[in-house]
Design a protein that fits this description.
The protein is mainly beta. The protein has 1 helix and 21 strands. Helices cover 4% and strands 52% of the residues. It is globular and about 65 Å long.
Length: 423
């Protein structure tokens, strides 16, 4: 670990002190230390005993951003750990490259970004970086970007392999083998925005060398914004082939309205993810792909991997959110979620059948304090009031009190290392 860390640090130092023989060159360094203490007693799964869990996790990240005329680059190293997860006086490798990409402009309207990067689109609903998780998510791929006449267009893709090989491209890891997406956004008026997205991801067929199951997800997002009112609607279809070989026919529907009356903001909405009942010949459970589900389906993360976390039963999530921001440095949010299955589930060897579709209600409270641009504090508490039907998808006891609390400190300054103009 020491050798690898030293090499990575030397690379960063070399980049910092390279002479920048170009106009308007800028070099930023962003260190981050984000520590989070958590109490878990029913987080992600129903309580199954008298003892909860307590621990402290930490992300330590160092990001270097470089920008000049037509070139941008980012290198982001990070170490993610739980306090005490290594024996003292042991050298255990833990450094990882979260991002390493370069972007260059072909014209004033077209650019290409390639390398390890985050894919974040349409507010993380299907493609997100999952920044709440300490390690976050990034992809190895390429994105072609075009901007002209109020239209934004991105076309991206990735092809995964385990290692350099001499023959065949069989991929055995539990990731997609192929990913491609097309995203387009247009501002129709001062208040109305529309975006369309198509995502195709392919997975290795286990019985072939080069065969791939392809899944296709496509749909529209509409956003209407005024000074006080904001409306959002989305609809996505899913088709193609499931890993089981069955055809897919699923959908996601979203409707949301928000009203701001300073210092309050009220949001009401519903998300509906289709599900399947019994042994149908077609997969009707919508998969949320590579989303940041933490921000949509309750902070206790009972539905972080959909549809696996609902046993293919789909999900109906109604919610009401209130945000109170008396000053720019303070904010208090209170969210209520009503969870129900889209389809009732039958019994299995591990889980009972559902008596009703209602799964339970969740309440999330979060207090944010921005001490400065370099330091923020957050504290949160959540509780889940589960129905007996929750035991059909999660192990544990629905009658037990489930709660989760956390405190987080984020220290993240942004340092300008070099910025000058060539004479």
């Amino acid at each position: 670990m020491k050798i690898e860390f030293t090499k990575n640090l030397l690379v960063l130092l070399v980049l910092v002190w390279l002479p920048l023989e170009t106009a308007l060159a800028q070099l930023y360094l962003t260190p981050q230390v984000r520590s989070r203490a958590e109490w878990r007693n029913g987080y992600q799964s129903l309580p199954d005993g008298p003892n909860g869990a307590f621990f402290v996790s930490q992300r330590s990240r160092l990001t270097l951003d470089y920008k000049q005329d037509n070139v941008q680059m980012r290198f982001s190293l990070q170490d993610v750990r739980v306090w005490g997860d290594e024996p003292h006086s042991k050298d255990i490798p833990s450094m990882a490259m979260h991002e390493a990409w370069g972007e260059f402009a072909l014209t004033d309207k077209i650019a290409v970004r390639l390398g390890r990067q985050e894919f974040v689109y349409n507010n993380d609903r299907l493609l997100g970086n999952v920044d709440w998780v300490q390690q976050a998510r990034s992809h190895d791929g390429l994105v072609l970007k075009a901007r002209w006449q109020g239209i934004s267009l991105d076309a991206g893709g990735a092809f995964n392999q385990e290692k350099e090989t001499l023959f065949n491209t069989h991929y055995r890891m539990n990731n997609y083998k192929v990913l491609g997406f097309l995203w387009a956004q247009k501002q129709l008026s001062d208040q109305l925005f529309v975006s369309a997205m198509h995502i195709s991801d392919g997975f290795q067929r286990p019985d072939t060398v080069g065969g791939v199951y392809f899944r296709h997800t496509y749909g529209l997002d509409l956003n209407y914004k005024q000074e006080r009112v904001q409306l959002n609607g989305a609809f996505y279809r899913q088709s193609g082939e499931h890993g089981s070989g069955k055809k897919i026919g699923a959908y996601l529907a979203v409707a949301e309205a928000a009203y701001t009356f300073q210092p309050f903001r009220f949001t009401i909405g519903t998300n509906y993810l289709s599900g399947m009942a019994g042994h149908e010949g077609k997969v009707r459970s919508f998969n949320t792909l590579y989303a940041t589900n933490h921000k949509y389906y309750g902070f206790m993360d009972y539905f972080i991997i959909v549809p696996a976390d609902t046993r293919q039963g789909g999900l109906h999530n109604n919610y009401l959110k209130v945000n109170y921001s008396p000053k720019s440095r303070y904010s208090l949010s209170l969210d209520y979620h009503y969870f129900a299955l889209a389809k009732n589930l039958s019994a299995t060897e591990s889980f009972p059948a559902t008596g009703s579709r209602y799964l339970g209600s969740e309440i999330d409270a979060v207090l944010h304090y921005k001490h400065s641009d370099q330091m923020q504090f957050s504290i949160g508490y959540s509780t889940l009031l589960a129905s007996n039907s929750m035991e059909a998808i999660k192990p544990g006891h629905a009658s037990a009190y489930a709660d989760w609390g956390w405190v987080m400190v984020n220290i993240q300054p942004r340092l300008l290392l070099k910025s000058f103009e060539k004479e």
